[in-house]
Design goal:
This protein is of the alpha/beta class. The protein contains 18 helices and 14 strands. A 5-stranded mixed β-sheet has the order 6-8-11-10-9, with helices on both faces. A 4-stranded parallel β-sheet has the order 2-1-3-4. A hairpin with a 4-residue loop joins β12 and β13.
């Protein structure tokens, strides 16, 4: 095993900041012709104004260097509406209508979304009545809402799929993955938590000032953020992407059934491509790995929501054929609202007979084998009955009965053509996980199998803040020495003293 890396960021040459005249947008680069933005330099400074102007223009916004009567939106920072109006009076610009006066947060959100976002009260600048129309003053505009304190726990943050900081989170995801490959757990967690908190922010990080008060951003992390702001990329991320070991582990672990130990073995043997691995006669592959190689091209392509829904219909048909009262729920990323994934997970539970439940997954496999819908499966029996207390490990696997399989999805089960399907192919291999849990444990299992960093932090929060132990099976109160019952996810959140967060807000 390679020792964890201890190298620091190499010294870099700073790029000179553009502090002179701003370059105008090219007409062909403008996407939103009816929106004309002017960024007020007052209290903002030349450098930050130039940086925001460049970012906005890259996204297709028309940003004027000079104030004119064509401007529709004036963006300011640390100025009230009255301050801006007073400045406008000095300029003596005659406009057909008064432009919108907005806080810089509106423009930052527009840049993050890549399109104009709705102007709300939190964006509009406060205008005193002295500057309002005396005949019809109307209501005062709402001041910007103060930014609430951000929690270190993902389970106390609402994280949608609308990521305003992808340039940073992509970098930290790569660094976390590299640390995982090197089994450097502490650094891996550092980068994962940094990516997680940045994904939850409702604004784009533009300057280092924007990182103040945000948890999980240590000096190492902030150094990388600063470098990306200044240079557009991280030298450390670039080095990782060019690292032969990272590239090899990334490739090897993309094969179904191949983990870190096998990847390490193949790397040390000198393999760098899958074709070399497959052609090596001395290597012995597990049944899972053989299936992974056999259906590799399909399995490394993303699963679309349409494909997941088609699989869902077939899963429900098969389950209900043997257990009509069963509840079948699609979990994982698709439950969190994702349009793409790498596999499809299902949680199955029934208020009926326990004996029928124990045989269900095997019966489903037998049925699908007769229909030619199973390419590979591995049935793992339940060890749930042997448990006494929930697991203290945040990433511990649960003990429910489950089946890991490669499903053969026929093309005719889809309403439309899918981009990942090869011309003329009549089926696609898709990774599917089926989990069977006791009915009284369904809320805990559903919460756990919905996944992401959110669920891991929920366990961490339970342990460190509530003196409880939470896993996919149960919630145990160590102080009262009792198990807390819950029939829904909402009840689990209530036991932990947390506001309920919808699945689509758990993309941490």
């Amino acid at each position: 095993m390679d020792p964890p890396r201890t190298s620091h960021l190499s010294p870099r040459k700073k790029r000179p900041r553009q502090t002179g005249a701003l370059m105008a947008s090219s007409p062909q680069d403008i996407k939103f012709q009816d929106l004309v933005v002017f960024i007020l330099e007052k209290k903002m400074g030349t450098t930050r104004r130039a940086f925001l102007t460049e970012l906005a223009r890259r996204k297709g916004f028309r940003v004027e260097n000079e104030l004119s009567d064509s401007v529709t939106h004036i963006v300011a920072e640390n100025n009230s509406g009255s301050d801006v109006l007073e400045w406008l009076q000095v300029q003596k610009i005659q406009a057909s209508s008064q432009p919108e006066l907005l806080d810089v947060s509106w423009l930052i959100e527009c840049i993050g979304a890549g399109k104009p976002v709705e102007m709300t009260g939190k964006h509009q600048l406060v205008v005193g009545r002295d500057y309002s129309d005396s005949t019809n003053p109307g209501p005062l505009k709402t001041p910007p809402i103060a930014v609430q304190k951000i929690s270190q726990y993902a389970c106390q943050r609402r994280t949608t799929l609308n990521n305003f900081n992808q340039i940073f989170t992509d970098a930290f995801d790569i660094l976390a993955e590299n640390c995982e490959f090197r089994e450097n757990e502490d650094s891996c967690l550092t980068f994962m938590r940094a990516a997680s908190v940045l994904k939850s922010l409702p604004f784009t990080i533009i300057s280092m000032k924007d990182t103040e008060g945000i948890p999980c951003l240590g000096s190492k992390v902030k150094g990388i953020i600063e470098e990306i702001i200044e240079d557009g990329e991280s030298s450390e991320v670039k080095a990782v992407l060019n690292d032969e070991r990272y590239q090899s582990f990334k490739l090897f672990t993309s094969v179904f059934g191949v983990g870190l130990k096998t990847s390490e073995k193949w790397f040390r043997m000198g393999f760098r491509t899958l074709s070399k691995v497959r052609s090596e006669k001395s290597l012995k592959f597990t049944r899972m790995q053989r299936a992974g190689f056999l259906y590799y091209e399909d399995l490394v392509s993303c699963v679309t929501r349409a494909e997941a829904e088609a699989v869902s219909v077939l899963v429900k048909e098969a389950v209900w054929a043997f257990l009509p009262d069963a509840f079948v729920t699609m979990t994982g990323g698709f439950r969190r609202g994702k349009k793409m994934g790498h596999d499809v997970d299902f949680l199955i539970t029934s208020p009926g007979s326990t004996e029928d439940e124990e045989q269900l997954l095997q019966k489903v496999m037998n049925l699908w084998e007769k229909k030619g819908l199973v390419l590979y499966y591995d049935l793992v029996e339940s060890t749930f009955e042997k448990l006494r207390l929930p697991s203290r490990k945040v990433d511990a696997l649960d003990h429910f009965q489950k089946c890991f399989l490669i499903f053969k999805l026929p093309r005719q089960r889809l309403d439309s053509d899918q981009p990942s399907w090869q011309e003329g192919k009549t089926w696609k291999a898709i990774r599917v996980d089926l989990v069977m849990c006791p009915y009284e444990r369904r809320a805990f299992a559903l919460l756990g199998w919905t996944g992401s960093r959110f669920e891991r932090d929920l366990r961490r929060y339970a342990t460190h803040e509530r003196k409880m132990i939470l896993d996919n099976h149960a919630l145990y109160d160590k102080t009262k020495r009792i198990f807390l019952k819950a029939e829904t996810e909402e009840e689990i959140f209530a036991h932990l003293g947390l506001d309920y967060i919808e699945p689509w807000e758990r993309n941490a």
